[in-house]
């Protein structure tokens, strides 16, 4: 009969609390009230961006739409999340937001219903994006409208891009292409 040994050594707190999760676990609601499963994006690179219609950075919608059209055939998708967390710059209803995005920027990439990206009512997806113990990458906070989170084909967070960095920054385009 063999001898079995068991180790009961203590683990570091980070090892215990950090469990790398995938964004593919989330089911969301789009601007039209339809269910959108992030698992449908397996195998695609994803840019998650919180948006607002009355922000100095709202012009980024135009860049985002061009990127979506240019790279969607390369397994890349953009998912927009309207949020009213910064100076009430997204006051409209889901219907208002959908009309604004279509009329002003021709947005055709998926847009989810308006959510909160910070504070006590933060949406679970943003809890995932901002918590290292969930995303396995790093802790962060949403600094402003149009902060971008880059998710790899396996659903794991890889990069966080500042709101003021344009979506088509060369580093982002390189990430999409590699």
CATH top level is Alpha Beta
* Shape call: globular
Distance between the termini: 53 Å
Count of DSSP E strands? 6
Account of the 3D structure:
- With 178 residues, this protein is α+β, with helices and mostly antiparallel strands.
- The chain has a single domain, classed as Glutaredoxin.
- The strands form 2 sheets. It has a 4-stranded mixed sheet, with helices on one face. A two-stranded antiparallel ribbon has the order 1-2.
- The longest helix has 12 residues.
- The N terminus is likely disordered.
Kindly list the characteristics that best describe this protein.
alpha+beta; two-stranded antiparallel sheet; 27% helix; 6 helices; single chain; globular; four-stranded mixed sheet; Glutaredoxin; 178 residues; disordered N terminus
Note the topology:
Blueprint: H1 13-17, E1 27-29, E2 35-37, E3 45-51, H2 60-71, E4 76-82, H3 94-105, H4 124-130, H5 132-135, E5 148-151, E6 157-161, H6 170-177
Parallel strand pairs: 3-4
Antiparallel strand pairs: 1-2, 3-5, 5-6
Compact description:
With 178 residues, the chain is α+β, with helices and mostly antiparallel strands.
